[in-house]
UniProtKB/TrEMBL annotation:
Organism: Shewanella schlegeliana
PANTHER family, alphabetized: 5-METHYLTETRAHYDROPTEROYLTRIGLUTAMATE--HOMOCYSTEINE METHYLTRANSFERASE (PTHR30519)
Protein known as: 5-methyltetrahydropteroyltriglutamate--homocysteine methyltransferase
Pathway: Amino-acid biosynthesis; L-methionine biosynthesis via de novo pathway; L-methionine from L-homocysteine (MetE route): step 1/1
Record HAMAP family: Meth_synth
Binding site for 5-methyltetrahydropteroyltri-L-glutamate: 15-18, 114, 516-517, 562, 606
Enzyme Commission number(s) from the entry: 2.1.1.14
Ranges of residues in domain Cobalamin-independent methionine synthase MetE C-terminal/archaeal: 427-749
Binding residues annotated for Zn(2+), in chain numbering: 642, 644, 666, 727
Family named by the database record: Belongs to the vitamin-B12 independent methionine synthase family.
Domain Cobalamin-independent methionine synthase MetE N-terminal: from-to ranges: 4-309
Chain positions recorded as L-homocysteine binding sites: 432-434, 485, 600
Amino acid sequence: MQLNNLGFPRIGRQRELKFALEKYWRGEIEQSRLHEVARELRQTHWRWQADAGVRLLPVGDFAFYDQVLTLSVTLGAIPKRHRGETPTDLDTLFRIGRGRAPSGKDAPAAEMTKFFNTNYHYIVPELTEDQRFDIDYQQLFDEVSEAQALGYQAKPVILGPVSFLYLSKTVEGEFNKLSLLPRLIEAYQKILQRFASQGVEWVQLDEPVLALELNSDWQAAISQSYTSLANSQLKVLLASYYGSIAHHHHLVADLPVAGLHLDLVTAPEQLQTFLPSLGAEQVLSAGVINGRNVWAAELDELAEGLSSVVGDLKQRLWLSPSCSLLHSPVDLEIETNLAPELKLQLSFAKQKLAELTKLKLLLTEPNSAEANAIVLECQARRDARAEAANQQVIARVDALTEQDYQRDDAFPVRQAAQRARYRLPLLPTTTIGSFPQTPAIRGLRSRWRKGEISLEQYNLQLRQVTKDTIERQLKLDIDVLVHGEAERNDMVEYFGEQLEGVGFTQFGWVQSYGSRCVKPPLIYGDVSRPAAMTVEWAKFAQSLTEKPVKGMLTGPVTILHWSFAREDISREQIATQIALAIRDEVMELQDAGIGMIQIDEPAFREGLPLKKSDWQDYLNWAVNAFKLSAAGVNNETQIHTHMCYSEFNETIAAIAAMDADVITIETSRSRMELLNAFEDFNYPNEIGPGVYDIHSPNTPTVEEMISLMEKAATKIPVEQLWVNPDCGLKTRTWDEVEPALVNLVRAAKQLRRTLG
């Protein structure tokens, strides 16, 4: 049997790609140096995979910004505003993804949203009705040649045509995206022909869209695409992941593909559905190692479940992670500060390859001494987990009643109390929470962590940064302030470090988008809050001004989704435990005089199951977790929440059920299109649609912001609207932020005169 891998993280175990990208964008290195770093990373990662026994190495999983964007540019699907007079090159990708590159003209960046139900973001392809597709960019083919020159067998990995279309958006008029499929298939045929001319044997086409409940038109598109692509000289491995595709069994079983990859982590039961329908020569790639979590696999249990399959399939069985390892940190070996009992439980991308090797040994040499050692190691991990239960937390969850999830009064009563207390102007201005994490702040944190300065010195300097942030906002004349979060390394990590049952790595970074990386906490036990986490910072900031300063918290659903969570209890149970910890913090903030508290839930939608028929159960417990975190406050305390890029139409009822007094959302890149959901639903509470795209370094003009808010006012009553950026300002510089916020406040004041 073979070992198969769908993709590997590209950032490097020390985030080498991130730092090279940012240096290039700042003009500190030439593009040649950026390419050199990229080659070094690819070659290291290929070597690791080959050393682990992977014969067909994934190529095309590397991207300088996002693999969907790379494919869009390869196909020539480049927005008109980003096309330059020069041929398509790497800077073209950066202008699409960031709105700016070291060369070419600035232009609004393309829309960015979550990739299915993950925290990875992709750049949304923009397609016109007269769209033409052709090979317009060579990166994929160059990397195939690069791998072959090193003596490796390359297996190109690209998103399949139907998933590419499904994830795209139409521009310049409404039309059926599927009308573009014949032209797109022709382009894919050319791509496969190029691969074949390079001597490629296998190509992996990813169709995660198959995990969705597709209508008949999209099902027909799958059939049409793979029937048309079957004429290539290549063997096609059709890969789907993130959920079961058993509901499309008959469709998939009839496709003329040489191999099929199944995600047997999220849906192990689908193995028995597809086994009887496999062709006599068809390969099955069994995705049994979790590509989206960091916990070591129960290899002995996996081997027991696969043992009968081995005899049936023999060499046609490929052992694989469930999905690309993009969602996993790179290498556990460099984690030197983890407690040994926790490190024993973990497996990162490089170690997951080793797990495949161990699983193969268990299947092929089950009675060997090496196999027995693996079994003992698995049992030791299970024993360690069983000893970690916190009975106090478990009992508190069990004692919850329905009343614990409800505010005292309905929103109109609360709104009247809040307006009487704060007396804000029409279209109040605010920001989402964070302000620039400058090199000075990061350097200060690094010195403290290294022990070069004391905690007292560290906090003293952070208080000065906070004071400066408040003064800047007062000078800008923003109505509702924030303290800026200078003390926080990350919106989830900061809280995780102060919660019991949560652990941390040094280098467990994963890519979120572009050069943005996050280091998710490890939820290994029952979660509780031993002490206040934000109260002193909020009190200090509020003491500096008469204007309201929001207390800033991360919500329970987002902490859950943006962590590597334990798998021995349900996600609902974990979210409830976290919600109780956040509730304790909310109540202490209120008692300290903080009257506005923002509980961010940017990851709320990404937890949705891929099948709509499974949504309601998730929405019920996710909404309840948020409500539990916020419901203890009085009417005058205004609860805010923030959500990132999301299609709200299908979840708007659940968002309304969260009953936040104010919700802020990212809408600038969609040009307020996302507000259609709030208009159609007649959303009852207050809304802050973002007018400043903080993911781009470009400064929006007053006129642009006014135009966006005027659009918003046609959809939402103006007295319900707030004016704010799309998201937190942590990743921007003050030179970028202050001009944008000056324009934001000017726009709000002009709108008060024209709309008020």
